[in-house]
Amino acid sequence: MLNLDGLEIIAVLVVMALFIKVLEQFGMFEPVGGEDSVEDDFELSTVCHRPESMDKLEELTKFTKKELQVLYRGFKNECPSGVVNEDNFKTIYSQFFPQGDSSMYAHFLFEAFDTNKNGSVSFEDFVFGLSIILRGTINDRLNWAFNLYDLNKDGCITKEEMLDIMKSIYDMMGKCTYPSMQEDAPIEHVESFFQKMDQNKDGVVTIEEFIESCKKDENIMQSMQLFDNVI
Prior knowledge:
Elements: H1 7-25, H2 37-44, H3 54-60, H4 65-78, E1 83-84, H5 86-96, H6 103-113, E2 121-122, H7 123-135, H8 138-149, E3 156-158, H9 159-177, H10 185-197, E4 204-206, H11 207-215, H12 218-224
Antiparallel strand pairs: 1-2, 3-4
Pfam family, one: EF-hand_8
Subcellular location: Cell membrane
InterPro entries: EF-hand-dom_pair (IPR011992), EF_Hand_1_Ca_BS (IPR018247), EF_hand_dom (IPR002048), Recoverin (IPR028846)
């Protein structure tokens, strides 16, 4: 059987890298013309949600004003209403995994970006998440990944939550990419995850255990570099 040790961690980072590729495909990282062109869009466009000013977002994220302008141009082109819903996320991932079912993983990812829990991702939500993923410290990025796994947001990861995540990853890419994988592969990965992460063996993984264990894993640390210098 193919050794997929670490899939439960690295899959998050790899799939997020694919998410960045989707943005590139949509032209979100292409240069724009004038310095003030996107600022004008803020004033003239009729959208359901108007984002914060560029100056404010520059203060709150690790992007420059010019980078924010490029991101907003692409975001507005793809989402004229000013917000992204869960169906948009599902459409993006279905394009990359046409032979699998990516809907549940897209749901979990959408939940991680929808920090206000209002059923939509605004431009602010979008750039706050990207700022962490692309420009955040190791701790910032690991905190973001932990939040993705902590489905009910109670501050710890249970085996049930990790199994839901692993099943979604397996449905998205495992069955079509690794057809020889056994049906109990997600359960095996959950057990492997807890053997590594659950340091005090109390049946849950805390953020402290998660970050400490990840930092000791060379493969995970190397995967973090996938996002350096993306834009």
